[in-house]
Design a protein that fits this description.
Blueprint lengths: L4 E4 L11 H19 L5 E4 L5 E5 L15 H5 L10 H12 L3 E6 L3 E9 L2 E12 L9 E6 L3 H8 L3 H4 L2 E6 L2 E5 L5 E5 L2 E6 L5 E4 L4 H6 L9 H12 L5 H11 L14 H14 L2 E4 L1 H6 L2 H8 L3 E4 L2 H7 L13 H10 L5 E2 L6 H7 L1 H8 L2 H4 L4 E5 L13 E4 L4 E5 L6 H17 L6 H19 L5 H5 L4
Parallel strand pairs: 10-12, 13-14, 16-18
Antiparallel strand pairs: 1-6, 2-3, 3-7, 4-5, 4-7, 5-6, 8-9, 9-12, 10-11, 15-16, 17-18
Helix pairs in contact: 1-3, 1-4, 8-9, 9-12, 11-13, 17-18
Length: 478
Amino acid sequence: MEVVRQFDLNIEKVLEHWNIAFALREIIANAFDEHMLTKTIEPKIYKDEQGAWHIRDYGRGLRYEHFTQNENKEKLKNPELVIGKFGVGLKDALATFDRKKVHVLIRSRHADISMDKSHKHGFEDIVTLHAVVHPPSDPNFIGTDVILIGIKDEDMYQAKDFFLHFSGDEVLETLPYGSVLKPKKNHARIYVNGLYVAEEENFLFSYNITSLNAALRKALNRERTNVGRSAYTDRVKSILLSCSSSSVADKLAADLKNFETGHLHDELQWTDVQIHACKILNANEIVIFLTPDQLRNGGALVTHAQNDGHRIVVVPDSIAHRLGNLQDIQGQPILDLAGYRTEFNNSFEFRIVSLNQLSKTEQDVLAVKDVIINWLPKSQTQNIKEIRISETMRVDYMGNEALGLWEPLDQRITIKRSQLGSVIDFSGTLLHEITHAFTGADDESMEFEQGLTQLLGQLTSYSLKKESTKGFWSLFRS
């Protein structure tokens, strides 16, 4: 004789706002959890010839004990694999199906289970939803088949779209805490173990979080939708800070360039992500990082960098001042303006010319340096230890050799030999480099221009007071 038993689901609170798609989501989630835990083949979702929808897994089979609300110890031990951990999700789904007039039949090797409303045991005035448990029609049945009658196709399509497995979002990089995804639609999504839990309007990427922390587990206890950003922010950051692929780096870098316009995506508002984006970009491209002020006032040095093949990436001051002391993800120094200045100066190849190699005319022009140095205040020249002449200089961005160079570490000015062909040319180049020496400023910057104007004014004022300098100034007219 067939023994039919009734299991009171004891559903105390019905989620009235749940629709059929939410209920289907829970059944699909259970099927995928079983698939992951048992490493069996993927669940199948299909519609039969009679119009009923099936959600079928190939695991161990549903038992009536799964209708209790106790924590599932197996799922708690494998949080990186599964979505749920309580029986409450399944019960919420069954209650929603009942409310929406969807007929449910569950088949496994343990039982055939349907739903019915009956009096609560011992309380004839209370009617509750019960699982009606029949002996299995097929004791050799593999897995669990949830058969649903009364489901519209659009409800099933909406339910499947909750899952990364069906959504079609492209995976850009997989990391220990989860994956970075290319959003398929206008808004980015947050998935947890493949289940959609939140949407972000201003995120650059979508994310699938596979390593849950306590805050995120708590947020997923029942609702699974509209999970607050505070629950997953740390995990999203951890995923991004582990990224190293160019597919992610290119998009981070492109977004970082929007800093000046104020149109950054929200991930790039986080300082540690900004810095990591710089590290990835420095490792993958020839770049130089500048502040907005350095871009505007960096003068010729910025132009040199661009023509040397460096792509300019503008970053906030708060980020820029930290980059010079950091290395990228490959262990190489991150290049900022100070670093490029050192690199620029070190790239010069000199062929130094001694005094006795110069012609008499060249020696006469070179002697002008002593006059100029003596005329200028000591405060402007005291850090210049040497002035020398080189046959060759670094080729600049126009393909010409530079005319002069101030080297602050060596406290030395080097001038190209060709400048000795004219007192005016030599003096102009020397005064230019002296201005670099006492201002420490770059070409075309406001500080440099002000320093050069001050230097020339002092030089002219002093020379006009000295009768003995008339012969010197006549050299400029010769």
